[in-house]
Amino acid sequence: MIDNAAMTKLIFDIFDLESKRLESAELLSRFGEELRLIFGIDKVETKLVEKAGGVSPAEEYVVNTMKQMIDNRLSDYSSFKELVDSFKAGYKSCAIIPIVANSRCICVIRLLSKQEEKFEKNVANALQISSMIVGSQISLRIEQEKSISVAKYFDAAFNSIVPQFLIDTSGTVIKANKSMLVLFNSNARDLIGKNVKELFAIDANLIAGLRKGMVAETMIVGRKDRKFNISSSEVSEKILHITFYETTELREMEERAKLLKYSNYESLLMLGPKTNIIWASDNVDKIMRSQKNGILGRQLLDMVVDKERLIAGIGKLGSGVYTDSARINLGNGVLQDVRLSIFANEMYGLSCIVANNALESSFRSIERNFEEIVRLSGDAIIFVDQLGYVQRLNKTAENLFGYREQELVGGPATMLYSTKADQDSFAHYLGMAKQEGMVGSLFAVMKGRKPDSFIPCDIGIRSMLDQDGKLVGYVMVYRELLTKRELEEAQEALGENERLIEKLEEESELKTTFIYNISHDLKTPITNIKGFSTLLHNGTLGEINEEQRGYVKIIIDESDRLMELIKQILDVAKLSSGKIKLDLQPVDFRKLGENPSIKALEEVAAGKGVLFSWTVEYDVGEVSMDPNRIIQVFINLIGNALKFTEHGSISVHIFKKGKSIRVEVKDTGIGIGREDQRKLFRKFYQVNRKELTVQKDAGTGLGLSIVKEIVSLHNGRLGVNSEAGKGSTFWFTIPLNPKKKRPKEIKEQQVEEKKDQAA
Q: Would you say residue 255 lies in a domain?
């Protein structure tokens, strides 16, 4: 909760910040600190959207919608990964607040609290009101900072030797620079107040065109020998800045710039105030992919994507040169990578050389690709300097020799050679590579870090030169060699393993067939035993006493239990042999939770006093799977949870994860030790029960192995997270796009199912 006094203090503090004349970033940071103190927030992060290196997905959502995003109960299932990360860091509530000005989001503030429900409605409203108040202040600061940066080179341009005027909307001269006074051999009092039409051949239509950014030609009234190209930029709605470039000097410059006409790599621009382009060399279309007429009059600042960086660079220009790579937006979605070199020009303000950056970008791309090839190479690669001292190496070299990179860098590469003869040959081979560029097919026995670790290698060496052709070092490639004996031993071991695998597969097939057949044979006598026992129990074959009836009921129950065990064994046999056909169809997990078998387990849980829940996340739609087999999976997993949970809860949580649906069955039971977890899904394996409470109807240890096979048939994964005494979570996944079975497999499975029905 926040009371009126706290809200009043916050508003007064915001207005107090305005009086301090802070920069935009500092003002935003101080506002965030005010929010932290007044609302009792644990962590506050602030970000200026235009100046930030990038915004996170959650922040991007807030920037685009310009709406608050509040999560008062962070969890592992929060809508953005960064919110999940905040939850794992100990925070319970999060609010991301946009600061909006002029119908755009200029800042975002992230507030994190270790208290749940921290950002209730009245707090959210207070945050919204305060951010609206501070938004106008920050927006004003940003615009002022931009204006200050632009003014730095605007003032310098007005003081240049190029004649310039400031005029109002009617054309009246407000200000003239010294060069203009020299041009008319006059003083400021004589020119200020006159209409520009009295001085130059300019009419109202031309002034209107100048406001739209056009470049025109004019002359001094009464003097045809002095012609000028004029351009303009708006200082404000009522003031226009006009610059007059005498074409005599400009034509001289054009003659000198004709040498650039045939260049595909560099072009020259002349820039006026606010970087408007007043002249361009004829080859500009080759570099900037735009016709000369299409860029004259445009401002270079408006064309550069990263405007702030260019403004900062020009502001620090002085008498030097500002050089940087830039991306130019030519319109219609066309972007061009260039390198800009900007320097002061006494006559026109600024000159700019625009260089094609394609070659540099291509070189950098090749360099990155080379580095990636070195990193991923299966050969050991070591870079050494001119004297053979190690500079760097790739991961394969680390693994081959057993050293980390930092252990070898700076040391001689000869330390890796096992014999004195190989060490002496090292310098000789470097000399050969220096003379010939590269040498290969060299043999040496290397030594690793481990004692008696000898590694026969085939070695290649290539010299590395800089752009001036000067030797800077060598690249050494080491390829480990296996001896003929080692290869023969490896092939013999491989053959032995293949024979062993064939034998085991044959024995496994025989065992599966035996179990399958014997289980079928057992079903008939058990059916008869149960049938006649039922007749006895019902009195169809004559009356029996209650004691006898009790014994017969035991026979019936045990027959049912034995039949269920036989069904499980048959399932295991069929699953192991791959003779199960899945009846894939779209299944809704919400409807699956209403299945009678699931409801029966829910009733068993209620009878034990154990809470049961079935939760399906909103984005889980229908999934292609075999509903009967998946019910079988749920019966086994939930049934196991019921066996080993005496109090607490059992929850089924179904949600989307990546390209799969993940199902988690979580209980608060006795848990499973780490050693048992490794064997849990093996056939016939049962957890050691000496530490468990007494359990009735102990199973065969087949349930989880059946679950594993069914999940595997759905191309899913199965696992368990558990700790003894702290409950268990069994989980499995079902892919959203399962692979289809081959027609041959389907036919075989249909035949087997018909056999089962006949039996």
A: no
Strand partners of residue 614: 652
Backbone dihedral angles phi then psi of residue 233, each to the nearest 5 degrees: -150, 145
The CATH number that applies at residue 504 is 1.10.287
The answer to whether residues 28 and 127 belong to one domain is: yes
Taking each helix axis from N to C end, the angle separating 4-19 and 24-39, rounded to the nearest 10 degrees, works out to 160
Residue 455 in any domain: the answer is yes
Asked if residue 236 and residue 170 are part of one domain, the reply reads yes
Spatial distance between the Cα atoms of 151 and 173, rounded to a whole number of angstroms: 20
| Torsion-angle region of 441 (φ positive above 0: left; ψ -120 to 50: alpha; else: beta) | left
- Are 608 and 734 within one domain? yes
State the average pLDDT for the chain. Answer: 80
Report if residue 755 sits inside a domain: no
Most confident of 7-11, 158-162, 205-209, 644-648: 644-648
Same structural domain, 83 and 183: no
Render pLDDT for 213-246 as a digit per residue (tens, 0 to 9): 777 888 888 887 778 888 887 777 777 888 887 7
Neighbours of 497 (CB within 10 A): 10
pLDDT value of position 613: 94
Of 150, 184, 203, the residue that ends a domain is 150
Q: Report the alpha-carbon distance of residue 61 to residue 84 in Å, rounded.
A: 16
CATH of the domain at 226: 3.30.450.20
68: domain CATH number is 3.30.450.40
How many domains in the chain? 6
Residue 510, domain member (yes or no): yes
Rounded to a whole number of angstroms, the distance between the first and last alpha carbons of the chain is: 72
Q: Higher pLDDT residue, 45 or 579?
A: 45
Q: How far is it, in rounded angstroms, from Cα 451 to Cα 576?
A: 47
171 and 146 fall within a common domain: no
Closest CA to 70 of 119, 129, 109: 119
Whether residue 296 sits in one domain with residue 233: no
Name which of 513-522, 544-553, 691-700 the model is least confident about: 691-700
**DSSP assignment letter at 201:** S
Cα dihedral: 173, 176, 181, 187 (round 10) = 70
Task: Give the per-residue pLDDT at 220.
Answer: 87
| 716 touches 737 (CB < 8 A) | no
Mean pLDDT of 425-437: 89
Same domain, 209 and 113: no
Closest CA relative to residue 459, chosen from 446, 443, 447: 443
How many angstroms separate the Cα of 208 from the Cα of each of 168, 171, 211, 228? 12, 10, 5, 18
Per-residue confidence band for 377, with pLDDT thresholds at 50, 70 and 90: confident
CATH number for the domain that contains residue 649: 3.30.565.10
Which of these three, 436, 465, 481, is where a domain ends?
Answer: 481
Give pLDDT tens digits for 329-368: 877 777 888 888 888 776 667 888 888 776 566 666 666 7
Task: State the alpha helices, DSSP H only, in 48-120.
Answer: 57-65, 81-88
Flag the least confident range among 187-191, 548-552, 742-746: 742-746
Residue at 115: amino acid letter = Q
pTM for the full predicted model = 0.32
- Look up the domain containing 171 and give its range: 159-248
pLDDT at 175: 83
What Rg do the C-alpha atoms of the chain give, in angstroms?
Answer: 41
Contacts of 663 (CB under 8 A, 6+ apart): 589, 652, 653, 654, 731, 732, 733, 734
Four-residue CA torsion sign, 750, 752, 758, 759: negative
Residues 475 and 528 in one domain: no
Most confident of the following: 283-287, 712-716, 741-745: 712-716
Q: Which helix (H) or strand (E) holds 536?
A: helix 484-538
Angle at 132 between CA 128 and CA 137, to 5 degrees: 145
Contacts of residue 283, defined as CB under 8 A and 6 or more positions apart, other chains included, come to 260, 261, 262, 263, 264, 267
Is pLDDT of 391 > 60? yes
